[in-house]
Amino acid sequence: MTNNNLNRRQFLKYSSLGLATAAFPKFLLANTSTAKNYPSANFKADVELEFTSKSAFIQILKQGNKTAVQKYYAKVLKGDPKTLLTLKENYLGPIINLEQGQKVRVFFNNELDEPSIIHWHGLHVPQHSDGHPMYAIQPGEQYVYEFEVLNRAGTNFYHSHTHGETGRQVYNGLSSMIRVTDAHEKKLELPTGEYDLPLVIQDRSFDSDNQLSYVKRMPERMMGFLGEMIMVNGKPNIEFSVKSRAYRFRALNGSNSRIYKLAWDDGTPITVIGTDGGLLEKPEVRPYVMLAPAERLDLWLDFSGRQLGAELKLYSLPYDANLPMMMVRMSGMGSNSIEAGAKFKIASFKVTEIVSDSPKLPIQLATIKRFSENDVNNINNPIPIGLSMQHMSALINGKSFSMNRVMKDEQVELGSHKKIRIFHEQGSRGRMGMMGGMSMPHPIHLHGQQYQILSRTYNGNDEAAYATVNKGFIDNGWKDTVLVMPGEEIEIIKPFEDYKGFFLYHCHNLEHEDLGMMRQFYVG
Ligand code: C2O
Ligand code: CU
Ligand code: CU
After folding, report:
1. Are residues 258 and 167 located together in one domain of the fold?
2. I want to staple 238 with a disulfide (CB 3.0 to 4.6 A). Which of 209, 232, 467, 523 is the partner?
């Protein structure tokens, strides 16, 4: 397979979809054929990785058969071997450890029997290295990513982003975590190594043969997949052994649709030190925190002073997800899924060693330059992201995803900062039935640069339901995914700097995304 082949195939594919339509000005077209399957001579990589997606059998459950999964295998071709941390006997891909300023090249080989592409969720990279579904490669093909790590230190995510199949491929295993560090973070001397613990939280359902079962019927897809079992780092019922000292926990919600309300079972408040885009200015302490699909929260917990053998459990506490009851009933029929908003245990931590020394939580973690309305050039004319679910479809501004369309509102000038208003469309506010349009929580993700949340307003009519979640939003840091609860309206400010091209935005409830709740910006 050669570069020309790939480009020609992509070209044919997109022209056959009717690329040259009026809604899609000609000047944009040139950019759709920038797929890469060869390394650039002028890009001097510090780190080179090889990723291969394959079918595999993994012992996920302790008893019984192995489970068929789709999995990323990877190796370091150039650079520090610690760039990859392989999780043993796991469906999750390796954890990738990067550093700000590094130039990274990834050779991605697709050895699945279906098209696929990897997206580096949270990283600010050029269009051709962002894993846009237009670049999905066929079995046996290779895709080459090249990017510089511009992000600050933080916790990111990578996963398959294949058009219409993202939910199923991610569910089957195609995802994991990216950690980025930088010089500023190193000076803080936060917990590292075994004290810097990933917590990739997901839910899964297995049949009697230990095989994964995924959504089948429409009501279930509209709600989003909800599994019967909670997995942490690819394992059910996880128990960590910890020392009596401080830890950094990198919580990543890698679930397709489940939203967690994280809390410690003994009432210890949750201390948050970072969000999607890295460290907060100062730690924030909350009774609980909400973690929607694709969101990340870096938590701090100091086990100092706890007794040998003491156990602390991480729970998801009950909340009112404000879901239309009819849908809940229809989607849950015949399944043992843990209901949205139910209470359940996620993981437990047992103190198995007493140590005398521990790092202290810094008072100041970082400085963040706050955007204000003065930084945008569209104060009175925010870009709308109107969410709706009607007639068995999930839409943005009344439209479904289209690989070759960008509306006028979706064309933004390179270098600009935009105010963006995310809201539920009229008629989808209340707890309604399936026919009249309905409101659901939607975690809204924008590719490209991280953004800031300007405001979060509740206009809904169910204050009691809202009160079960409203203390759990960490809106002060850099974000790439924001949970929009029913009745909420959120304004953000997003910079569109550095790279021209197509950048997706979508609901990260992966079933909603696959149903079409995705659009794209063209930055030019
Ligand atoms: Cu995490 Cu467009 O994705
Ligand atoms: Cu993303
Ligand atoms: Cu959604």
Report:
1. no
2. 232
Instruction: Show the 3-state SS of 491-506.
Output: EEEEEECCCCEEEEEE
Q: What is the CB < 6 Å shell around ligand 1? A: 119, 121, 157, 159, 161, 294, 445, 447, 504, 506, 508
Nearest listed ligand to the Cα of residue 161:
1
* CB neighbourhood size of 128 (10 A): 20
pLDDT of residue 303: 98
The residue whose CA is least distant from atom 3 of ligand 1 is 121
Range of the domain at 149: 34-187
CA of 51 to the centre of ligand 1 (A): 18
The atom number, within ligand 1, closest to the CA of 157 reads 1
Ligand 1 atom with the shortest distance to the CA of 131: 2
Over residues 169-190, the mean pLDDT reads: 98
The CATH code of the domain that includes 453 is 2.60.40.420
Q: In whole angstroms, what is the distance from residue 215 CA to residue 38 CA?
A: 37
From 187, 210, 237, give the residue that closes a domain.
187
User: Looking at the predicted structure, is the pLDDT value of residue 23 above 50?
Assistant: no
> In sequence order, what are the beta bridge partners of 297?
251
Domain check: are 208 and 341 in the same one? yes
Q: Which residue has the higher pLDDT, 299 or 23?
A: 299
Please give the backbone phi and psi of residue 490, each rounded to the nearest 5 degrees, phi first.
-130, 135
Looking at the domain assignment, is residue 486 inside a domain? yes
pLDDT digits (tens, 9 = 90+) for 458-504: 999 999 999 999 999 999 999 999 999 999 999 999 999 999 999 99
CA separation, residue 21 to residues 33, 137, 175, 522 (Å): 16, 24, 35, 16
Is position 226 within any domain? yes
Ligand nearest to the CA of 163: 1
The residue whose CA is least distant from atom 1 of ligand 1 is 121
CB atoms < 10 A from the CB of 393, how many? 15
Q: Which of 157, 187, 217 is the last residue of a domain?
A: 187
396 and 476 assigned to the same domain: yes
Asked if residue 507 lies in contact with residue 513, where contact means CB atoms within 8 angstroms, the answer is yes
Structural domains in the chain (count): 3
Q: Are residues 322 and 397 in the same domain?
A: no
Answer yes or no: is pLDDT of 385 > 60.
yes
The predicted structure's pLDDT at residue 22: 38
Ligand 1 atom with the shortest distance to the CA of 159: 1
For 223-252, what is each residue's pLDDT tens digit?
899 999 999 999 999 999 999 999 999 999
Q: What is the model's pLDDT at position 330?
A: 67
**Model pTM score:** 0.93
Which atom number of ligand 1 is nearest to the Cα of residue 481?
1
